[in-house]
Amino acid sequence: MIDSNKSTILIVRQRRNSQGDGIDTITREETFEVHQVSNWQEGLSASNGIRPDVIICDGSIPESGILDLCRNVRTNPELMSAVIILFGSHEGIEGMKTDPEARIDDWIEGSVPSSVIIEKIKTWLRARSIYKERWKRYEDVIEKNNLLKTNFKELTIVLIKILDTYLPGINEHSKTAKAIAEYISEKLSVKGEEKDKIVFGALLHEIGKVGLPREMVEKAYHDLSIQEKEIFSHHPSVGSMIISSVTGFKDSANAVYHQLENYDGSGMPDGLMGDEIPIGSKIIRAIVLLEELYKAGLSSDEVISRIKGSLNKALDPFIADHLINYLEEQDRTPLTKKTRFNIDDLKTGMVLAEDVYSANGIKLLPKGVMLQEKMIKIIAERNSSDPIIGGVYVFTD
């Protein structure tokens, strides 16, 4: 049984010196839990079992065996932090120290005094302890960051579904906007954090409409009166203000604020033109135009024709081109239709097309689940006390 208060040392040596040597000194050190094997295969097997802090190979082990042991240790996530020390005489030591797949950490000559050997090993153990502690902190930070990202995404989904109860259609618009923003960003080689902020802005580009009268939102833009258009034009400012309250998403807020700017400078609120317009705003402008064309009841061919007519006017020509390519690819892709059902109309065998959330933000069922009678009952019971937001979407033919 391994003593948890001691450092675990694995010694790999084929033969012992009858007169004793530095390695024998290691076996007598009280702060070490020492295990010994006679070849590299046994060394690897023992390592998997005891997970040593330090592995020491002496000069009696062939170089090829040491290299095989090192490679196996360095590629095993459970063992890769072990300190590997060569003891005694080794030909080709420099090659082993620089081989990235079989890296050793130190080499101790057999003539080194016993006290120095022990102190060297303890120094490596202290360094390893610091490394493991910092690595654990790093993993904890990554885990917490991933959890925050997951929670943030789920809260965003819940927010959109809540908005959809007031302004039906925002949920679907947001998903389409997200897909288009991701597609165009990738085509423009926009990556990483910049892409994430553009996509987030696209996802919530309609959030400012929550302050508009419902009958105004439901109209196509060209059907609005002059007075209504003036009121409507303020929703990007409201949306930007809401998003800017989220720490770290100033660029997303800015993209939403300028979503009605036109490439030729005829847009609002600031009449920006060309490269003065943020790339995120240009992408959202294309999404907004697409939404307006679909709301007007145009066919796919008519929509593409109108987009082509907007080049260098409302839309950046490169972004318009990518939008057209996106639409054409969608037309060639067999899509599974999603339909919104009332809870009373749900039936066993239906497959959920979206996650189902309650008003309190609790995810009841995930996308892709085939509904069973018990699940439908749970949804119905929950809806009576904690209403289902955004409806229930299932895949249909």
Protein architecture, described:
The structure is a single chain. With 397 residues, this protein is an alpha/beta fold. The chain has two domains: 7-136, 3-Layer(aba) Sandwich (Rossmann fold), CATH 3.40.50.2300; 168-334, Orthogonal Bundle (Hypothetical protein af1432). It has helices at 22-27, 40-50, 63-74, 93-98, 114-166, 170-187, 192-203, 214-217, 226-232, 235-244, 250-257, 279-295, 300-309, 317-332, 373-385, and strands spanning 7-12, 32-37, 54-58, 83-87, 106-108, 337-341, 356-357, 363-365, 392-396. The strands form three sheets. Strands 2-1-3-4-5 form a five-stranded parallel β-sheet, with helices on both faces. The model has no long low-confidence stretch (mean pLDDT 85).
How are the secondary structure elements laid out?
Layout: E1 7-12, H1 22-27, E2 32-37, H2 40-50, E3 54-58, H3 63-74, E4 83-87, H4 93-98, E5 106-108, H5 114-166, H6 170-187, H7 192-203, H8 214-217, H9 226-232, H10 235-244, H11 250-257, H12 279-295, H13 300-309, H14 317-332, E6 337-341, E7 356-357, E8 363-365, H15 373-385, E9 392-396
